[in-house]
Automatic annotation (TrEMBL):
This is Thiamine diphosphokinase. Its EC number is 2.7.6.2. Residues 392-450 form the Thiamin pyrophosphokinase thiamin-binding domain. Keywords: ATP-binding, Kinase, Nucleotide-binding, Transferase. It holds the Pfam family TPK_B1_binding. The lineage of its organism: Bacteria, Bacillati, Actinomycetota, Coriobacteriia, Coriobacteriales. It comes from Parafannyhessea umbonata.
Length: 454
């Protein structure tokens, strides 16, 4: 589905106010002589504010009333919203990008509406949002999907075409229960678990400069006539995607043309656009931070690609990682399993070559192949492709097998064969074998290995 709606949390997602909330709440609890205010804040953070204040009184011994305590807290919060908190970097620009594409937006917060309105007005972004919705009363805390469902009703958009932007795991979890896509704006203050956030966010971003409407569209927009992005059909043929990366010593144009002929979908990762242009191959998608692609090649790739988005140069993932995600998105849209080929990825930078191995390991389910002019390498594991049968033209060539985890492997048709041999991670026992026969065969029974035909 197209992207038609966006629901934003406020604190920690639009506005860098989580340290403020922590500070003023702990100060309030300390002023009322509550033991271990840090722990009390952690326990009550998911609650709507009135419920939080009621808990302070009922569960933690604050000698006050819910309403009086709430107002005492709000005096501190309003002053901070008006004078001492700021937007997260890049937020205003991202909201403008969504608005320019007609995306309807609302704020769904655990903070009460008047305070959210004050914060949005102070930052000059209130005009982007059609509505401000708060938990409390009949709208349960963000541990439940109530506020997101109310946000959908306000925007008039369907769950499948609406994205939630959150920094809190409990908010993303309930958004998923409501059938919404999720973007995690990972907290810069070190108070969230990145593994948990990665599981709950369809996209994990360390800041708004990593996001754009085009990036979201690549994750969300289906291809007419194909699947809706659910699990691939067991009978569907794999989508063979070719990622052309931007290594300093690229593969030859002839090799790239050969790989592209066998591909269903071609992705240029940054300087990979230069190789594709030279090879006369039009990419289906172009992504990268444009730090190494020549401007003319970048302009060409943007003009001919169906999918195109630029990434920030200061980011937490490589262009190759985004390109592999782009390949996964296309396979999901078409309801097909992914078969991944990568080229132009390892020449001239040994550190990049090692990182590429890590990316292929993470994509082991996509049966990845790394193909360069001098060699071909494959990830073999039971969860993806667990065997590799070498053709007759491999006879006499060097073959190396490196375990990326402790593995059990078999080799036949080699000068030195293995029969369910245990190879410790990164051991050298499988290095520099020779293919002795046509039809040589490698099988990974357990673990993960990278197999090189040189």
């Amino acid at each position: 589905m197209a992207i038609r709606g966006a629901l934003f949390d406020c604190d920690g997602t639009l506005i860098d106010s989580m340290p403020m909330w922590h500070r003023v709440t702990v100060e309030l609890l300390a002023a009322h002589d509550v033991n271990d205010p840090e722990n009390v804040f952690a326990k009550t953070e998911p609650l709507p504010l009135h419920e939080m204040c009621a808990s302070f009184c009922d569960d933690f011994g604050v000698d006050s009333t819910e309403d009086a305590l709430f107002e005492e807290l709000m005096v501190r919060v309003r002053d901070a919203y008006a004078h001492r908190v700021e937007l997260l970097p890049g937020c205003r620009e991202f909201l403008g990008d969504l608005s320019a594409h007609g995306v309807r937006m609302a704020v769904c917060s655990s903070t009460s509406v008047p305070e959210v309105e004050l914060a949005l007005e102070a930052q000059g972004i209130r005009g982007f949002f059609r509505d401000v919705i708060s938990t409390g009363g009949s709208v349960r805390s963000k541990e439940y999907p109530d506020v997101w469902e109310k946000g959908l009703a306000s925007l008039g958009t369907a769950a499948g075409e609406t994205w939630v932007f959150e920094d809190a795991p409990f908010g993303m979890r309930s958004a998923r229960q409501a059938g919404l896509h999720t973007v995690c704006l990972f907290s810069p203050h070190g108070d969230r678990d990145i593994d948990e956030c990665s599981r709950l966010g369809d996209i994990l971003a360390h800041g708004y400069p990593e996001l754009s409407f085009a990036l979201l569209e690549d994750y969300a927009l289906p291809v007419p006539g194909f699947g809706s992005g659910s699990d691939p059909s067991p009978d569907a043929a794999p989508l063979r995607a070719l990622v052309v990366d931007g290594s300093p010593e690229p593969s030859s144009a002839g090799l790239v043309r050969s790989l592209a002929r066998d591909a269903d979908y071609v992705i240029a990762a940054d300087a990979g656009a230069m190789v594709l242009r030279e090879a006369g191959v039009v990419p289906d998608a172009f992504c990268g931070d444009c730090d190494s692609v020549e401007p003319t090649a970048g302009d060409w790739a943007r003009s001919v690609s169906r999918v195109s988005y630029e990434l920030p140069r200061e980011k937490y993932a490589t262009d190759l990682a985004y390109a592999i995600a782009c390949a996964r998105n296309e396979a999901a849209r078409q309801g097909r399993p992914l078969a991944l080929d990568v080229t132009c990825a390892t020449g001239g930078r040994p550190d990049h070559a090692l990182a590429v191995m890590g990316q292929l390991l993470g994509a082991a389910d996509a049966r990845p192949r790394l193909v360069e002019d001098g060699f071909e390498a494959r990830i073999l594991c039971p969860e993806g492709a667990d065997e590799w049968g070498l053709g007759g033209d491999a006879k006499g060539r060097t073959f190396s097998l490196i375990a990326l985890r402790d593995s059990i492997v078999s080799e036949s048709g080699m000068r030195w064969n293995l029969d369910r041999r245990t190879l410790p991670a990164l051991s050298d026992e499988g290095v520099s074998n020779v293919v002795a026969e046509g039809g040589a065969h490698i099988h990974c029974h357990e673990g993960v290995v990278m197999a090189f035909l040189l």
